Amino acid sequence: MLGSVLTLAFERPAIDWHAIAPELTLLGFGALLTLVDILWLERGRAVVSALASFGLLASMVPLLTLAWDGADRSTFWGAYVVDDYSLVMKAVFLLAGYVVVLLSTNYIAEGDYWENEYYQMLLSAVLGMVVMASARDLVTIFVALELLSIPAYLMATWRKRDLRSNEAGLKYYLMGVFASAVLLYGMSLLYGAAGSTMLTDIDAAISGDGAPLAVVTLGVIFVVVGFGFKVSAFPFHTWAPDTYEGAPTPVTAFLSVASKAAGFVALLSLVFVGFWGRADVYQPLMWALAAASMFGGNLMALRQTNLVRLLAYSGVAQAGYMLAPLAVAGESLATADDALSSVVTYLAIYAAMNLGAFAVVIAVARRTASAEIDTYKGLFRYSPGLAVAMTIFLMALAGIPPLGGWFAKFEIVLALISPGTPWGVALGVIVAINSVIALYYYARIASHMWVEAPPVDEGFDTTTPIKPPTSVSAALILTGAATLAFGILPQWVGHFTEVTLITALPG
Amino acid sequence: MTDFLNDWGLVLVTFLPLVGALVMLAIPAAEEKAHKQLALLASLASLVVGVLLVADFDYGAAGTLQYGVDKPWIDVINSRFILGLDGISLPLMALTLVVVPLCVIYSWDHIPEPGNPKAFFILMLILETGMVGTFVAQDLILFFVFFEVVLLPMFFMIAVWGGENRRYASIKFFLFTLFGSALMLLSFLALFFLSTDPATGESLRTFDMRALSDVAGAGILGATQTWIFAGMFIGFGVKVPMFPFHTWLPDAHTEAPTVGSVILAAILLKLGTYGFVRIAVPMLPDGAETWAPWIGLLAVIGIIYGALGCLAQTDMKRLIAFSSVAHMGFVMLGIATLTDFGINAAIFGMVAHGIITGMLFFLAGSVKERYHTLEIRRLGGMLVQAPRMGWILGFCSMASLGLPGLAGFWGEFPAILSAYSPAEGLPVETFRTYMVVAAVGTVLAAGYLLWLLQRTAMGAPREEFVDSDEIVDVTRTEWIAWAPLLVGILLFGLVPGLIFDVTDPAVVGLLANGG
Q1: Which residues contact A10 (CB under 8 A, 6 or more apart)?
Q2: Does B29 touch chain A (CB under 8 A)?
Q3: Looking at residues A314-335, what average pLDDT do you find?
Q4: Which of A318, B28, B199, B237 is most buried by its number of CB atoms within 10 A?
Q5: CB B236 within 8 Å of CB B272
Q6: For the stretch A145-166, what's the b/e string if a residue is b when 16 or more beta carbons lie within 10 angstroms of its beta carbon?
Q7: pLDDT tier, A3 (very low <50, low <70, confident <90, very high otherwise)
C-alpha cells in the first residue's frame, strides 16, 4: 500500500456497493436537500425537515437488508468493515439523528434560522458517524471524525445573533481542532511504529516484544486523549458545559448523544482491533480516565443550577461509566466481548434516555424560555405529563430499575467484575458509589418538580399544562417507550448489542 | 383451579396492582371517586388471587417452591423470570396483600395534602407490585429489580405528601437505600461468577436463587465469602434498618404520610430481613458464620439504642419509628443465631411487627388528624375523649411490648431464647450475653410503651382540646381498615402455629443445604 502511494498510481479498490448503501442513501438525501434549496428557495423550507427525517429512516432500509444478509463484509482493502457491531452502532446513529430532527423541527423553523442548511449539516454529521462505525483504518477514522465534527461546530453557532451561541461554537471549534491535532500526532507515531494505517496491522506490529515501547505508549495515549475530548471525558471535558449551554438545545442533544457515541465507536474500534495486544498501555489509562470522569463529572454536577449544564456534567460521568469496561478489556477474550457488549448496550440505552431528557428541556423551555433548574419548580402541578416524563428520564440516567439505565449500568459492572481482578472490582465499586452520588442531583430535580410550588412572577404561565408541538411529543413518546422497554425487557436491546470485534481476529 | 394457579397465580398476584395503575393512568385526575374505586378493586383483586393461593397451597410441602413460573427473560446475562412461593414467602406475601387494600380503605377520606388521589394511589399500587414481586422472585436479578421498584414510589410518597421536612427525609431515604442496593448488586454479581457446581467443579454462571441456595457457596473461599456477605450485609442492613444504618428511618417515618409510614413499617423493612433469610444466609453459609456475631452485636445495640431513643422522643410518630429499630433488632438477633429456631422466630417477628407497628402508625395518623399535633406532652386523656381509640392504642402497645397471648410475644420471646444456643461454630458465650442484653431491651420496651400510653391515653384531656369537636372516636372507615389487623394481632398471638407451621419446613430446608 505504501508503495502505491509513493508512485501515485491509482488502483481502484473492489467496492462492495451493498456494504456502503446506507452511506450512499444518506449522501443522496443530503444532495437532494441542497437541490431543493437551490431550486425552490424559500418554498423549500416547508419540506426540508420531513425530507431529512425521511432520509435518515430510508438509510435504515439497507441497514436492515445487511443485517438480514448477516455476513460480515469488508471493502476498501479492509479499511471499511460491516459487521454486527457496526450495524448496531449505525442504527443508533440514524435513530438518534431522526429524534434530533424531530426535536429541531419547530425550534429551527420558529427561530428565524437558516433551515435548509441546518439539515444538510445534520445529515453530513450523521454520515460521518455512520462511516466511523465501519472505519478500521487510521485515515478513514480521521476523515470520519472531521466529517462529523465540522458540521457540528457550525451547528453549535446556529443561533448566530446570540453571543453565547457564538461562544459555544468557538470554544467547541478551538478545543476540537486542538484535540484533532493531538490525535493526528498520536496516529503519526503509531504509523511510524507499524508502517501501516490499518488497525489490524498496527495491532500486529505493536503487540510484539520488538515494538518500541515509548513510541507506542505515547501514540496510544495521544490517540485516546484526542477522542477523550470528543466523548468529554474528565479532564478533557471543559468545552462541554459552555458549548451545551450556548448551542441550540436540539444541537446540544445531538452533541451529547450522537457525537459522544461516535467518539466511543472510534475508541472501541481502536482498543479492540488496534491496541488489543497492548493491554499494559491502555488499561491503566482507561482506568484513570474512567475513575476521574465519574468522580469529576458527578461532583461538579452537584453544584449546577442550570439543567443543561447539569446534563453536561452528568454526561462527563456517563462517559466515565462507558470508559470503565475498557480498563479490563484486555484480560481475556471473554472479558473483551463482555466489555464491548456492555459499552454498546450503554450507548444505545443512553441515547434513548438522554435524548428524552433533552426533549423535555426543549418542551419546557418553549414556555419558560430558560433551562434554570428553579424554573422547573412545581412542574408536576401544572404539567404532570412532562414532569412524569422528565422523572422517568432522570431516574433512568440514575440507573433506578425498572427504567432502562439500570441494565446499562448492570452490564458495565458485570464486565468489570467478570475477570475477577482487584482493579476491575475496585472500578466496579467506584461505579456503585458514583451511582449514589449521581442520584442526589437527579433526585433533587425530581423533588423540585414534584414538591415545590410553581414560581410566581417569573413571567410565564404556571396554570395551564404545557403543550409540546407534535414532533417533540413524538420524540418524547419514542424515547420514553424505549427507556421503559429497555428496562423491563432488557433482552430487546441485549440481543442486538451482544457483538464482538475480537473473535474475528486471527489468534 | 390448581392448574390455573400453577400457571398464572403468582403472575396475577404480582402484576394485577400494576394493571390497575396503568388503567388509572388513562383516567383524568378529576375523577377522584373512580380512582379510589379502581385502586381498591386492583388491590382486592390481587388479594383474592392471594387468598386462593393461600387456600390451595400444599402445606405438607411448605418447604418446596410451589406455583413455579420459569420463563426466559434476559438471556444475555442468564437471568430468567422465575417466581415461586414457599413457606417463607407465603406469610410475607399475605401480609403485603392484606395491608395494601387496608391502606387504600384508610385513605378513602384521608388523602393527605396536597391531594391528587390519582397519583397517590398509582404510586401505592406500583409499590404493591414491587413488594409482592420481591417476596416471590426466585432469580437474583428479578429480585433486585423488584427490590428497587419500591424506591421511586416511596420517595415520591414522602416527598409530595409528607410533612414539613419532607425534602430532606425523602432524599435521605432514597440515597441510603440506593447505596445499600448498589453494593448488594456487586455481591450478586460476585455470586454469579464464583459459584461452582460441587459435582463438576464448573462455574454455574446463574442468578437462579434455587440453584445458588442448593450449592450454598460451594467453591467460594471463606475469605471471599466474607467480602461478598459484607456487600449484602450493607444492602439488606440499610433496608432493615440495622444500627448504624438506621438514621434514615426516623426521618422518613416522621415525614411520610400515614399510609406511607404504615407500608414502610409493615412491609418495606421486611424486604431487608427477608433478603438475609432468603439470600445472604443460605447462599453464603461461611460468610454468614463469620459475620453472625457482628450481626448479633449490632442487633442488640439496635435493641437498646432504639429503646433509649424511644424514651427520649417527644413526638409520638418518631417514638414508634424508633421502636421499629428496636423490634427489627430482635428479628436480626434471631437471624444471627443461624438456627432454624431463630430464623422461624425472625419470620414471625417480621409479620408481627408488620401488623402491630403498621397499626400503631395508623393510630398516629388518626391522632394527628384529630389533635393536629403528635407532641406527646400536649396529648392526654384520649380514653376520655375517644375511648375506643384509646383502648386500641392500649391493645397495640401491649402487643408491641410483647405481652403473651398477642402476636408480638412470639416474635420477641423465641428470638431471645434462640440466642441461648446459636448454631454450631458460633461463640456461645457471646450469644448468651446478647440474650441477656436483649431481655433488658424488652423491659425498656415495656417502659417506653407504657409511658407513652400513660401520657397520651390516660389522665384528663388537655385544656386546649377539651372543647374541640374534631376529636371523635373511631370512624367507620377506620374500623374497616383496622379490624383485620386487630384480629390478626389476637389470632397469631393465640395460635402462633398458623405461621410457625408454614415457615418451619422451608427454613429447615434452606439451612440444610449449608451443612
Answers
A1: A4
A2: yes
A3: 92
A4: A318
A5: yes
A6: bebbbbbbbbbbbbbeeeeebe
A7: low
* Integer Cα distance of B87 and B511 in angstroms: 14
Asked if A414 and B77 count as a contact pair (C-beta separation under 8 A), the reply is yes
- Sign, CA dihedral B438-B444-B446-B448, equals negative
Question: Which residue in chain A is spatially nearest to B165 when comparing CA positions?
Answer: A451
Q: How many residues does chain A have?
A: 507
More confident site: B358 or A276: B358
| ipTM field | 0.91
Instruction: Dump pLDDT digits (tens) for B503-515.
Output: 999 999 888 875 4
Closest-CA residue to B54 (of B83, B82, B84, B85): B85
B341 touching chain A per CB within 8 A: no
CB neighbours of residue A492 within 10 Å: 12
- Closest chain B CA to residue A419: B193
Q: Identify whether the C-beta of residue B346 lies closer than 8 Å to the C-beta of residue B409.
A: no
Question: Cα–Cα distance between A164 and A344 in angstroms, integer?
Answer: 33
Grid-cell match 453544584, residue found:
A303
C-alpha cell at A451: 414538591
Mean pLDDT of A42-57: 87
Give me the pLDDT at residue A1, please.
Answer: 52
B263: which 3 cell numbers? 407500608
Per-residue pLDDT, averaged over A9-35, amounts to 88
Strand runs labelled E in A200-270: none
Share of chain B above pLDDT 90, in %: 74
The residue-averaged pLDDT of A89-105 equals 94
Which pLDDT score is estimated for A331? Answer: 86
Split at pLDDT 50, 70, 90, the class of A5 is: low
Contacts of B190 in chain A (CB under 8 A): 417
- Among B286, B193, B299, smallest CA distance to B246 is for B299
Q: Identify the pLDDT of residue A507.
A: 34
Under an 8 A CB cutoff, do A436 and B155 touch?
no
Interface A-B: count of C-beta contacts within 8 A: 96
Q: How far is it, in rounded angstroms, from Cα B311 to Cα B306?
A: 9
Q: With contacts defined as CB-CB under 8 Å, which chain B residues touch A389?
A: none
Report the DSSP beta bridge partners of residue A80. A75, A135
Query: CB–CB of A495 and B75 under 8 A?
Result: yes
Say which of A395, A413, A494 has its CB closest to residue B76: A494
Please state, in angstroms and rounded to a whole number, the distance separating the CA atoms of residues B62 and B85: 9
Q: What is the mean pLDDT of residues B309-330?
A: 93
- From the list B239, B243, B246, the residue with the least C-alpha distance to B304 is B243
Of the candidates A197, A331, A338, the residue with the CA atom closest to the CA atom of residue A270: A197
* pLDDT score, position A498: 82
List chain B residues with CB under 8 Å of A341. Answer: 76
Examine the pLDDT at A6 and tell me if it is beyond 70: no
Please name every residue paired with B71 in a beta bridge, in sequence order, or none if there are none: B81
String of b and e for A360-383 (b: at least 16 CB within 10 Å)? bbbbbbbbbebbebebbbbbbbbb
A112 vs A248: which has the higher pLDDT = A248
- Å between B193 CA and nearest CA of chain A: 7
B328-to-A158, A281, B453 alpha-carbon distances in Å: 60, 51, 22
- At A396, phi and psi to the nearest 5? -65, -45
User: CA-to-CA distance for A293 and A257, rounded, in angstroms?
Assistant: 17
Asked if B207 reaches chain A (Cβ–Cβ under 8 Å), the answer is no
CA distance A424 to B429: 41
CB A425 within 8 A of CB A370: no
The H or E element containing residue B209 is helix B209-215
